[in-house]
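Please predict the structure of the following assembly.
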Amino acid sequence: MISTLYIEKEVLKAERVLEIRQRFEHLETIECDFYGEIFNRKAQNFRLQKKNPALILAKKHKGFVLPAPESYGIGGENNYYFSHMMNCIYDCRYCFLQGMYRSANYVVFVNYESFADEIRKVAQQHAGEPVYFFSGYDCDSLALEPVTKFIDFIFPVFEELPDAFLELRTKSTQVRGLLDRTVLDNCIVAFSLSPDNIVKSLEAKTASLDKRIEALQKLQNKGWKIGLRFDPLIYCDSYQEDYVCLFDKVFSVLDAEAIHSVSLGGFRMPEKFFKNMVKLYPDEKLFASTLEENDGMVSYAKELEQEMLEYCENELLKYLPREKYFPCF
Amino acid sequence: MINIVCALHCEAKPIVDFYKLSALSNCIFPIYSSEQINVVVSGIGRVDTAAAMTYLFVKTLEQKNNAWLNYGIAGHKSAALGTWFNVNKITEDSTALNWYPSRFQSGDSLTASLKTVDNPISQYESEKLYDMEASAFMATALKFSSIELIQLMKIVSDNEENHLDQINKKHVQLLLKDNISPLINIINVLKEQKMEFDNIYDVDELYVEILKKWHFTQYQQKEIQRLIQRWKLLCNSEHIDQLEKCQDAKQVIAWFKEQLTDVTVAF
C-alpha cells in the first residue's frame, strides 16, 4: 500500500516517528528537509502516483485549526476543521483532493500536541457554547488510524472538553478500536454513504456499502453517536431508485431515532480543482456528464441539482425527524 | 520515447551498442537514436547537461512527457566498483536544493542519495553518491516531463580505495558493459510507465483526423478535444458518419454539442 517513507529532518527522532518507522521497517526511507519539497513540487501526476503513494512524516507549523467552510456543519454555530493528515488512501473520483493537491502521497503531521493545544484554545474562545471540530476534511478520519494512532491521542483531549464536539468522517470499516473503547459522548462517527452502483464505479479502494452499514450498526449498538453523510449526491439516470434503495437499506438496519445527524449535499467543486481533475481523468464519465460552472464552482445544472436535492430530502425525511437533518447546500 | 542522458561517450557506448542505436548527423551534441530510444551525450557538468537536454527536446519536436533517464559513473565512499544505485534524492551542493525522483517497485536494485558537485572530489562524505550532472538533469527533465517518468541510475566508478584519477574511458566502458542488466531493467520500467501514461493521455485519433479536415482556432481545438472525449464516454461513438455534412469547425462543434444534449448517464 505505501511504497516509500519520507521523513522531515526535524522530526526524524520524534517518538511518534520512530514508532511509525518500526511498522515500515521494510520500506525505503528517505530524509527530506521539508515535506513541500516532495508534496508541492510541480510536474507530478496525481493519477500515476495514486498507484504507488509514499508516506511523508512532517511537522506542521501553523494553521492547525481553521474555520470550516460555510454550509459544512451539523447544526452548530461554531464550526472548525483540522487536518493531521493530507490525502486519503481511498480513490473516490469525485473527491476534491485530487484537484487540490499536486501529489497523491500521504502527509501525516506528527506534532499532534500542537493540534491539541489549538483545539483547546479555540474551545476556550467559545467557552459555554458548543463548538464543532471536523477531522475528515483533507483526509479520511479513520482509514490510516492503525498507522497514525491519532484517535488514541485526540480522544483524551475531547474528554476534557465536553462542549467541544469531534466529528470523525470516514468510509473506513476499521472500527475495532472504537468498539473496544468507552464511548466518547462528544464524538460523532459519521460515514459517507452512496448507492451501491456509485460505490462500485466511483469510490475505488473503499469498503462496500454493506460493510459500512454493518460498521455503523456495530457502533450504534455500542452507543456511539453516528452520523450519515449523503454527500455528494451523484446524478445518473436511475438516481431516484438508487437513493431510495440506499435509504431503505440504511434505515432498515439502523435506528433512525438514535442517529445523531444526517446531511445531504450536491456534487460541487471549485472550477480550478475541477479543471485539474478533468486533465487527470479525461476518460471519467462523471466529469463528462452535464455539469455547469457558476461563480467559480462546478456543479450539476441548477434545475437538476435542485430536483435531486428535493427528491432525496423528501425520501430521507420519511425515515428521519427533521431536527436530525442538515442540508449542505 | 525514452530520452537517455550521459555525460561521456564511453558511458553511452554500451547502451548504443545494446540497442543498436544509430548516430544522427550534424548534431551539436551527439545523439544516437532508434524508434523508442534517444541517447544524448552531454559532456561533463550541469551547464552542458541542461543544454544537451534542451537540444534533444527541441530536436525531437518538443514532445512533452517523454521518459527521461540519466545514468553514468559516480563516486561513493565505500560501495564496491560496479555497484548500481537507483538515485532517490539529489542535493545540489552549490545551492542546497533537493529533488526526489519518483520511487517504483525496483526489485533488487540498491538505492542511494546523491550530491551533485561542481568539481571532482576525492573526500567522500557518508554513504552518498557524487556526480556532476544529476541536479541539472532533474531540474531540466521536470520542465519537459512528469516526475513519474524520470529516473537516475549511477554506477560506482571510484571510492576511497580506488580514486578518480585511476579511471579511464576503457575502464568506464567495460564497467558498464559488464554490469548492464540493472540499466536495461530500469529502461524497461520506464517503458512501462511511459506506455501507461500514453494509454491515458495520448491524443485521440478522431481528434487528429478532425483537425486535419477542418480549421479550428486554438480555443476551438481545446473545446473540440473535450467534446470528443465526452462524446466517446457518453454517446458510445454513435452517428459519427453525420459529421461529414459539416462545412466548418463551428458546425463540427455544434454537432458534438447536439449529440451531448440530454444524454443519459449510467453508473
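The interface with chain A takes residues 88-89, 98-100, 102-105, 111, 113, 142-143, 145-148, 193, 196-197, 200-201, 226, 229-230, 233-234, 260, 263-267 of chain B (CB under 8 Å). Helices of chain B lie at 9-18, 46-59, 134-144, 169-178, 181-201, 205-213, 218-234, 249-260.
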